[in-house]
Structure formats: C-alpha cells, structure tokens
C-alpha cells in the first residue's frame, strides 16, 4: 500500500432525496486504489456499494467530496469530461450482463473500440485478443440470447477489458450466476487483473466469492465498517 | 457514424411487425403525395398543352390597350398591316410561325333561333402551323378551307341552334364603326370543347369573313406566335419586342393569357400542399410514437451505452438514425410503387371529366424528378423532426436509472 493511489474517493458523501426526506447513501467515504488492485466492496443490500461504484465510475455525482480517476480530479458538472473518462479509462461489468441484444459477441466487444475510433485492423486484433482471454473466441457470431449466463458475463468482461482501461468496475457480477460459474467469473477477473494489471473494484455480498479476494472493504449504512486484506 | 447507423438498422429489425407497419405508413404517404401531385400536374399539363396548341400559341402580340378591353370584343385597338407583320415575325429567329387573328363576338342566328357567340376569324393558311391542335376536337365535318364563308361551331351551340353541316347561318355584331353588320356563314364542321361555356358559344370562321363582319381592312386583334422552343419564349419575345417597339404593340407570354388555367393550377397546388401537410403530420406522429416506444423498451441499453462511453449526442444519433432509416426505406419502396403505378397507367390512362364538362379525357400521370426530390427531402426532414423529442428524451436519461430499469 505504499504505492501511489491512482484512483481515490476523498470524503465522498451522497444523499438522495425522497420527497422532503434526505436519505444518506454514503457518508464521508475515503478510499484509495493503486494500480493493479483487486478489491471487493462488500455489504448488505442498501449499504451503499452500488452508489460507491457509480460515483467511482462517473455515472453518479457525489453530494460532496472529490473523485480522482487516474490522478485526475473529476469535475462533476462537466458531462463531457465524465463521458471521456468512462470511454477511455473505465470498463463496466453489470450484474445482468447488459449486452446489446442485436449485436453478436464480436460486435458487443468491438463497440467500446468504435467509440475510441480505433482503426479496423487494431479493433479486430484487440477484440480477438479479449475474446481469447475470456475463452469465447469460437462464439464470435453468437447473439447474447444464444449464450448461457456465464458466457454472457464473459462477453461482458471482454467488453470491459478490450480497451485496456485503468479501472474495471463490476456491480455484483456473479449475482445472476450459480456459485460454480460465479467462482469461475471471479477467477477470470483475477487472471485479467494479474495479466493486465488492471484495477478491479467490484461489489458483492457472496461470502464464497469474498474468500477469493485479497482486499475487502466492508460497508454498512454508507460508512466503511471494516477493511481487510487476506493473506 | 457508421456504427450508429449499424445499430439503428439492427434495432429496426427487433420488432419487425412494428417496423413493417411504420414503414407501410410512410410508403402509403409517399405514394399518395407523389401520385396526387403527378396526377394533378398531368391534368394541368394536358390542359396547358391543349390551350397552347389550340388557342394561345406560345405568345401573342396585341395593340396597346386591347388586352384590358378584349372581353367586350372592342374594335378600338387593332393591329394595322397585320398580314405583313405576321409574315415578318414568322421569319424572325426562333419562330416557327405567326398567324393573324380577329376575335369576334355577337349573335348567331338560323332565322328561327338566335344565340350569343364568341370566337375568331383565323388565317386558315398559317393557323394550322401555329396552333397544331386547332382542329383536334373536330367531331363532324372538316376543317376550314381558304374558301371564305365557312365556319366551325362548338357542339353545344350547334345543338342549341339545331344545325347540321352545310346549314347557312347569320353572324351579327357591331363593326369597328359601331354599326350593326351581319355576314352569312356555312357550317363546315363541329368541334366538341371540354369546357361547356366555350362549347355552347364557339364560332371559328376564316379571317376574310371575320374582317367583313367587323369592317376590318388588313387588321387583326392579335398575332399568335409559335416558337421553336417554348422554354425560350421569353428570349424570342424579347428580340421581337425590341425590333417592333415603335409599333405600340404589347407582347404577352401564353401564361399571362391563361388566367383560368393559372387559377386552377393554384387551386391544385393548394390542394396538394394541404394533402402533403396532412400526410407529413401523420408520418411525423406515427414515427415519433415508434421511436419513443423504442426508447422506453431499450432504456436499460441506453444506460449501458452511456456507461460504456457513448455521449448524449451519440445516443440521440442512434434514434435519429433509426427514424431516418425508416424514412429512407419508406421513400425507396414508395417511389418504386409510384413508378410501377405510372408504368401501368402509361398504358391504360385514367379517364377523367374536367370540371364543368361531361366529356372524358385520358390523363397519363408523369414521373416528376423535382417532386421526387422534394418529397424525399421532406420525408427525411419529417423523420428527423419525429425523432427529436424521443431521442432528446433518451439522451437526457440518467444512466444509473436507465441501467436499473427493466431489471
């Protein structure tokens, strides 16, 4: 932990308003992530895990506090800046996979590269490499509906890592999978993390999965309740 | 840009039934707009063609002041030396022929029955070349010869007077000296004119007989001119006007003399504009509804695309591209159907009775590139406008709420 943090949440709070009632989701959370970190954010439902990931992913705006992505302070009111950060520096893995149903496996993985305006040859090389890493190189023409849940999540991982982002955020990536497939997905994420030195931050409340993770940040009622590092 | 269109095209294939219905609506709209315009244009074109080739020529020359008073068949504004003027003008560059004409109006009588008439005395030698459709509507008898005293009557007038070919009738009117005058004419032919008022009153006679009736020397009320190229009428007219400027003459292009045609053209244009506006509105609402339904159904996808790094502009672009794509399919198929319809009608034609007549004429609608281009552009614009609200709505979604939806 002596390395310099390249992602950071500084005293981040988020309060939602339900009518006239203010509901605090995060309360003055400070967290640092170094390059190549593999961190699980754990906690019960409603503890603020997803809110934390959304703020770190520049999808949500903190009520107060600062967000630093790749050593850059994110100015929350600048929509274009947040889009640029998401496009270049962050990959997302969703609980429900969220693949584009009309795109086949190849096209789903290629989409982030189209946004980065990569030339066609480079796109092909990167997509093939990403699909090989997740073991789906033979399924390129399949539509998401013709894949199993585990395969869809692997496509989702390939889509997140194809642009080699600095940070991949995964919101409960195993929640819709059986435990065996869930473990395989976590192993795959861990392998990508080690091979590519991409920082992974993911939320889960699955105790089996938490055993596979080195660093765990536990959240309860919007506050960090415990931070543990497995040997 | 390409990936936006690729996604848009694939999205339109998701709900095939909805896409087919929406496209069908655009196709029907395009066909109705193109066909109604082609039909109305062909109708006015056929009328215009008839007017130019049977009555107006490409342009006419009159004595100053005549046009304003010609409804009363005034004899006060005549062109002197009409024969030599017509001959000289017919020799001008760009001119095929010119013919002198005397417009007359008065009473026609069989002895037992009398009826009002109007018509003209034509130079039978040059009139046929200047007005090639002059005798097209002849249903009985033959055209006028250079033998003086012959006449062609409108079918309605002949019926009213109960006359037949070979009957001798009297034409009576005030001559240029305001004295009552009359001449005898022999019915040589009968024409059927679609327009009732003309059909019930028309008398065509030869120039000499008309001059004798109104006591003209070598005079005419107008010189009718046919050019080699109707689209260059203005240029031809300009050259002649400059050359004959000292003669106190006025020059009128055919369009300035076809007041009723212009009125009907304006009416048709207003009608087709209203029809087009109604259709564009229906297409706009239908397309907007289709695109908005797509936005609601794909909210989670919109959130995902935003998370991956699509900008709000790109999200808007996807839905606008979708709407344009539907519009383009509608235009292409609509134009294809329209062309096939025209090809079929080119053989069969559409029998029509022009307003105020019981006569059938055949209309052959024509393909008009200008109409095709303007309809195509309009449908594309309508498609873009239809997508503005839904795409704006999509682009303003909160990515987190969007991702959570439909889960």
Taking the alpha carbons of the first and last residues of chain B, their distance comes to 29 Å
Low-pLDDT runs of chain A: none
What is the strand content of chain B?
A: 15-25%
Strand adjacency order, main sheet of chain A: 6-7-8-3-9-10
Quick structural summary:
The complex is a heterodimer of chains A (231) and B (407). By secondary structure, chain A is an alpha/beta fold.
Question: What are the key terms here?
Answer:
heterodimer, A: 231 residues, six-stranded mixed sheet, four-stranded antiparallel sheet, 34% helix, B: alpha+beta, 12 strands
Tell me what the structure shows.
The complex is a heterodimer of chains A (231) and B (407). With 231 residues, chain A is of the alpha/beta class. Chain A is built from seven helices and ten strands. In chain A, helix 4 packs across helix 5 (149-161). The longest helix of chain A has 18 residues, at 179-196. By secondary structure, chain B is of the alpha+beta class. Chain B is built from 15 helices and twelve strands. In chain B, the strands form two sheets. In chain B, strands 2-3-8-5-7-6 form a six-stranded mixed β-barrel, surrounded by four helices. In chain B, a hairpin with a 5-residue loop joins strand 6 and strand 7. In chain B, helix 1 packs across helix 13. Chain B is elongated, with a radius of gyration of 31 Å. The mean pLDDT of chain B is 90. The chains are: A alpha/beta (231), B alpha+beta (407). The A-B interface holds A 54, 57, 59-60, 79-80, 83-84, 86-88, 92, 94-96, 98, 100-103, 111-112, 114-116, 159 and B 3, 7, 10-11, 13-14, 300-301, 303-312, 314, 399-400, 403, 407.
């Amino acid at each position: 932990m002596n390395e310099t943090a390249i992602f950071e949440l500084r005293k981040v709070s988020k309060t939602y308003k339900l009518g006239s009632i203010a509901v605090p989701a995060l309360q003055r959370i400070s967290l640092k992530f170094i390059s190549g970190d593999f961190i699980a954010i754990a906690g019960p439902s409603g503890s603020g895990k997803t809110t934390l990931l959304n703020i770190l992913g520049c999808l949500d705006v903190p009520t107060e506090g600062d967000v630093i992505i790749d050593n850059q302070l994110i100015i929350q009111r600048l929509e274009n800046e947040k889009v640029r950060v998401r496009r270049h520096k962050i990959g997302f893995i969703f609980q429900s996979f969220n693949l584009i149903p009309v795109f086949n496996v190849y096209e789903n993985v290629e989409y982030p590269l189209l946004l980065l305006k990569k030339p066609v040859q480079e796109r092909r090389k990167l997509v093939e490499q990403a699909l090989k890493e997740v073991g789906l190189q033979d399924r390129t023409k399949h539509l998401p509906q013709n894949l199993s849940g585990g395969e869809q999540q692997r496509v989702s991982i390939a889509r997140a890592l194809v642009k080699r982002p600095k940070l991949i955020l995964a919101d409960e990536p195993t929640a819709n999978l059986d435990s065996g497939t869930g473990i395989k997905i976590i192993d795959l994420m861990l392998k990508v993390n080690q091979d590519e030195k991409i920082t992974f931050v993911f939320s889960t409340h699955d105790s089996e999965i938490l055993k596979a993770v080195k660093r765990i940040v536990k959240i309860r009622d919007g506050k960090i309740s415990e931070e543990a590092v497995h040997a | 840009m390409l990936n936006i269109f690729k996604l848009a095209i694939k999205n339109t294939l998701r709900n095939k039934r909805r896409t087919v219905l929406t496209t069908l609506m655009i196709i029907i709209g395009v066909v109705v707009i193109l066909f109604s315009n082609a039909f109305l244009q062909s109708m006015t074109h056929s009328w215009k063609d008839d007017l130019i080739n049977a009555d107006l020529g490409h342009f006419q020359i009159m004595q100053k002041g005549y046009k304003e008073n010609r409804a009363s068949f005034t004899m006060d504004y005549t062109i002197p030396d009409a024969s030599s003027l017509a001959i000289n003008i017919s020799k001008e560059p760009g001119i095929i022929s010119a013919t002198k004409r005397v417009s007359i109006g008065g009473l026609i009588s069989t002895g037992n029955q009398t009826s009002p008439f109007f018509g003209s005395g034509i130079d039978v030698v040059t009139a046929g070349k200047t007005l090639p459709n002059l005798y097209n509507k002849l249903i009985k008898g033959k055209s006028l010869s250079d033998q003086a005293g012959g006449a062609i009557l409108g079918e309605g007038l002949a019926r009213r007077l109960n006359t037949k070919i070979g009957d001798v009738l009297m034409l009576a009117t005030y001559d240029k000296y305001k004295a009552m005058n009359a001449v005898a004419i022999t019915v040589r032919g009968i024409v059927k004119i679609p327009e009732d008022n003309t059909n019930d009153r028309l008398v065509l006679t030869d120039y000499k007989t008309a001059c004798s009736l109104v006591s003209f020397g070598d005079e005419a009320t107008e010189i009718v001119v046919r050019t080699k190229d109707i689209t260059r009428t203005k240029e031809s007219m300009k050259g002649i006007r400059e050359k004959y400027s000292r003669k106190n003459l006025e020059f009128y292009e055919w369009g300035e003399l076809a007041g009723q045609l212009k009125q009907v053209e304006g009416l048709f244009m207003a009608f087709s504009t209203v029809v087009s506006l109604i259709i564009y509105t229906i297409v706009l609402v239908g397309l907007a509804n289709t695109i908005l339904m797509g936005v609601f159904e794909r909210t989670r996808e919109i959130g995902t695309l935003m998370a991956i790094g699509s900008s709000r502009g790109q999200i808007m672009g996807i839905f606008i591209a979708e709407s344009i794509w539907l519009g383009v399919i509608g235009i292409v198929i609509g134009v294809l159907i329209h062309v096939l319809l025209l090809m079929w009608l080119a053989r069969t034609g559409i029998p029509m009775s022009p307003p105020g007549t019981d006569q059938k004429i055949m209309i052959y609608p024509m393909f008009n590139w200008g109409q095709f281009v303007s309809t195509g552009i309009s449908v594309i614009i309508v498609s873009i406008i239809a997508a503005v609200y839904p795409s704006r709505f999509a682009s303003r979604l909160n990515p987190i709420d969007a991702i959570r939806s439909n889960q």
